[in-house]
Design brief:
Helix content: 10-25%
Oligomer: single chain
Structural class: alpha+beta
Distance between the termini: 54 Å
Radius of gyration: 14 Å
Shape: elongated
Number of strands: 5
Largest sheet: 5 strands, antiparallel
Number of helices: 1
Number of domains: 1
C-alpha cells in the first residue's frame, strides 16, 4: 500500500494534508480525490456565484494527480 496525500485548494486557500491515506494504487487515489472534490463542491455550490476548487494528490515522490472543478453562476436576465 502507498500513502497518498490530498492537498485541498479552495480559491486562494491551500490546506496541506499531513496525514494522508494508505490506498492500494493510483486508481484508488484518483477515485478518493474525485469523490472528495464532489462532496466539497456539493456543500458549497449554492453559497457562492463562483467556486474554484482542486485536490492535488501526491505520494512520497511528489504530485501525481490533480482534480479540478470550476463553477460559475451568472444571471443573464433578471
Amino acid at each position: 500500500m502507498t500513502r497518498y496525500f490530498f492537498d485541498i485548494h479552495d480559491g486562494d486557500r491551500i490546506t496541506v494534508d499531513v496525514e494522508g491515506l494508505e490506498l492500494p494504487d493510483i486508481e484508488a487515489a484518483q477515485e478518493e480525490a474525485a469523490l472528495s472534490l464532489a462532496e466539497m463542491i456539493r456543500n458549497r455550490l449554492w453559497d457562492e456565484p463562483i467556486v474554484r476548487m482542486a485536490i492535488h494528490v501526491r505520494d512520497a515522490g511528489g504530485l501525481i494527480v490533480e482534480a479540478r472543478f470550476f463553477w460559475e453562476m451568472r444571471h443573464i436576465r433578471q
